[in-house]
Fold these 2 entries.
Entry 1:
Amino acid sequence: MQMKFNLVQQTGASNHQVAYAAFNSNAIYDQKANFRAVTQTTPKNTWVDHLKRIQTDQDQQAFAELFRYFAPRVKAFLMKSGAAPGMAEDCTQEVMATLWHKAHLFDPSRASVSTWIFTIARNKNIDALRKQRRPEPEELTWGPEAEPEASDVLAMQQQSDQLSQAMKALPGQQRELIEKAYFGDLSHGQIATETGLPLGTIKSRLRLGLSKLRQTME
Amino acid sequence: MNKITHHLSDQLLIGYSAGTLPEAFNLVVATHLSMCDECRAAAQSFDSIGGALMQAQPTEDLGDAAFAKTMALIAKGPKVAAPAPAGIDVPDPLSAYIGGGLSDVKWRPIGLGVRQAVLKTSHAATARLLYIPSGAAVPDHGHRGTELTLVLQGAFRDKTARFAAGDVEVADEDLHHKPVAEIGHDCICLAATDAPLRFSAWVPRVAQSLFRL
């Protein structure tokens, strides 16, 4: 079933109803069974296609699927970072709405979908929980807007996948340390003095984006 | 620009990626990333770790109305951010804090020809611009916490090395130094500290209480 709406052009209360219908039409199945179906039948980088469908067609079906997968992860991240459940819930909704609004900025040759959503969730966390502004680096000028090369997209998504695998393969204690650093349980000072942080292990895997960036700058 | 030789530590880049640094440190990191492709790429890598962690963790269920509420937020339209001022002589993240370029900075003398301007950030750490005239020195000092010093213009030297535009010095409790601006150019730096500096002489100590150094 393909449901496409141009939400932006619609106005009034019908928006919610239409959107909710899109979500529910997919939710008639048992949620978990449906979730398994989504993850099993499609390759890892399927979320790239979902995002593209949101980008080009404002495809609510794609958004509903993406929401079902990522929203509970965003909420879990926010709660681990110290948000109370109610606040995490509200912030998650804002994160997912931002995802829709900024979908046109997503470049699959520069980041995986999960990385991109993580950065949106992190910035929301800083803004809403820590009440700070978040200085972001200057945007690079990437030249005329071009469709990213399919090979670059594939390489980035494969590297992200490898990174996930490498993280899973880390010894439990090291993995825990990384989690603590990312979920705010380690202050900067603690990260600096924490010698068990497996930076070498990660770094050898982490030339993500560097070669791509160099190519672009040259 | 000359080649950047002094970079941010992985620890700082992780903290920036995780979002756990004080705002003043984030400002120095974002400004350095705007100038340094190598650290920018490394920061993107650390973002990917965050993405992988977020994806792999156990999930938290949302309320029944979460999707409908999200669609309602979407229907309201995006928040429109103010466009960055164009043609500015400092990177965008910094110009947002100055409210323009270096000519808009409201400098205040802090002695020995050195001038500073404190930027408004959260109180966990302090960010300031430092103007060190050619040949002048910031008084000899040590650190109680971490001090990040990013060179925007000119260059300075201390006993460890020479730092030129784009370079960042990460100083901690172990470093006691006296940065001196190189002859020929005035040196402008963006510095952030998460604890008061430890000056050796009493005059700067008095100044310290007056200028939040």
Entry 2:
Amino acid sequence: MATIRFTLNGKPQAVDVSPDLPLLWVLRDALGLTGTKFGCGMAICGACTVHVNGTAVRSCSMQAAAIADKNVVTIEGLSADGSHPVQKAWIEKDVPQCGYCQSGQIMGAAALLAKNARPSDADIDEVMKFYICRCGTYQDIRSAIHRAAELQANGGVK
Amino acid sequence: MNATRRGFLKTTAGLVVGFYLPGRGEVAAQGTAVTTQRVNAWVRIGTDDSVTLMIHKSEMGQGTVTSLSQLLAEELECDWKKIRTEFPGIDPAFGLQGVFGSQSIRTGWGPLRNAGAQAREMLLQAAAQRWGIGKSLCRASDGVISNTANGEKLTFGKVADAASKLTPPTGLTLKNPGQYKLIGKSMKRLDTPDKVTGRTKFGIDVRVPGMVYAAIARCPVAGGKVASFDATKAKAIAGVRDAVQISNGIAVIADNTWAAFAGAKALEIKWDEGPNAAFNTPAIRKAFTEQTLLPGASARRQGNGAAALDTAGKKIDAVYEAPFLAHAPMEPLNCVAHVRPDGCDVWASTQMQTGISGIALQLTGLRPDQITIHTQYLGGGFGRRAGTDYAREAIELAKIVKVPVKVTWSREHDLQNGIYRPASVTRFAGGLDAEGWPLVLTANIACPPMGGSGSFGGGRGGGVDSTSVEGIADLRYAIPHMQVDYHSVTGGVPTTYWRAVGYTQNTFFGESFLDEMAVAGGKDPVDVRRRLLADVPRLLGVLNLAAEKAGWGKPLPAGHHQGIAVVNNIGSYTAQVAEVSVTGGKLKVHRVVCATDCGQVINPAIVEQQIRSAIVFGLSAALKGEITIDGGRVQQSNFHQYDVVRMDEAPAVEVHIVPSTEAPGGMGEAGVPTIAPAVCNAIFRATGKRIRRLPIQGQELA
């Protein structure tokens, strides 16, 4: 066991876990933040995506020790009230079906828009093809990302 | 009655109206309500103006929470923004409770509107009494009752208590379609806001005080048993507490899910694999194919198939094959159970509440009123969660550990210890008349039984499993002679429903072979279908609509080719035209035009969502989906070996809905069956290559 200190959704956090415990299980089991989802455990499906120092990472494949002193943002911390442009666009387009993969999709899309404010369809596909949705919401996700880009251009990312 | 329902009925003041949602097979053909004194669903109007719909349904992405609420609100005239849905604990006395077969709207259509009307009339009556006027002078709209004589207003909550003293009226006349305000409107899904902020609680998100985590090592061969095991290495892992044997394997109990997974992997287990270890995919394919040469159980006899084949002007035959498939919902299977001397609670994202309740009764020996099943949101179901294996294990383990325990399946467990959509083989023969039109069709199907979760195959020739022949035995085409035979076979793995059930492979087989018959007769595939569906107006309607909207027969972009397929399943009618190109052997599905007639549409946006979803789901199977067996073991372990369609492979989908006031059909499964044959028929037109085995991936398309 080790005490890992990091910033979680804007607040200092300390957690006593085995240093090799993946971040996914630090969040879900040790800290009770269940918005980040387990899908494959092999960094293939994207359901567990969170931001570490602003970059989208697969939390199932990042050990607790690696997040020491880092800034971690999960779906619960993307905005205080669901007002991030990506979340607003997702609501406007009614993207989720079962919804299970959507935390990861949203975190992936938010990271994409932070780097590329006006992505083309091809830009979106190139990033989002690594996120599996078994309900097949891809067409809706693509259209919501374009809408989020518009919202972001009008209001900026919080 | 269990605690959850007691709490619902007692704790809040206001009006509660109970009603009955019939199960599968209980709905009259026209979708009318069943007359019954039983109650298994409730609507509550709180004194705070809240409206709560309590229904035993499972939300797994199909939008049922939203569309069922629309049915209620249409008649209730409540404020749409104030509707909430709760999933009640379930009672064995209710009869079968589960969500499969795309039936929620079909069974809820009458009862939910009627319950809404009953509650509305009681609220109006209570307001009329308060004002001392006749009820006919009162109007309800948006959760407010108006006195049309003097303009006074009361919200529903203000009269809810008084209304609860009244007797629910019967024989109410429901609105006609011209009066609908919500039915037929694309209301926003009620579950979206929580799903974009991580707040929705799926089964895997359940946390109960004192809960421990578990993972189970199961025999890699279905039906195998533990001979002996050594947990020394597993227990040496940080966070692992214990390892115990249960009937389905060895459970590792730990402080977190990750340690439980690692512990389960570190177990050293000697298995008694049993007879299923003898199965492998090449031998399964050979055995199924050979079986189709023999006469089977009769699934359809119309005219005289054998004699007609002898006299047909032209004959063709073909053998079609589909593989085993996993469901692979994004939320891996899981279940939380807590068994105490005086009670049992089970938290599960499930499609089969009744089955779990029965297992809890059997395993705990408790009384029905001591058992509560807490239905959670489902991270996909697709039929896998109509099984109950995940709950049986958790309840069995909870009895041993005596504290709440969450059993989580890894993705490897999900794919390798699953219950599968059966592999199957169908042998067709077709004959054409002198003018080249279909005269006779015979089909000989070898398929492990789909109906019957976890079954290991039935006796050969011993009857017909109706779900294994649907899609061929119930073809609507006016072909004078049709004969369908069925063989129940086994591939050594348990089999079950998969989104769209028998139609998932049989519509691929049947619609592809019909295309072959059209080509053999020198006919256009749409013309052949038009002629054979002349007496099935709704199927003909979607065929014509899809062909028109897709521009069938009109010039296409260079290298693009179209294929078409139709299906009538779950009370709905669907046609799809797929537009593909094959360049250098590489297939691209560019566009799918789908026409659907699902009767009265409740929420068009949700219908369109379900079709887009079904097309991606069906395309994943058509292009890539395959579970193979070697030594009785499933060879695919995770998404790198069981890949699905990704965003860059998803076609643009256009949906066209036929306006209708017929009783609603199902939608969750309607769009799945036709995508594989539409794509394969398009591949034939592009390349001359007929795809007779799925998946397409790995086959030469030149």
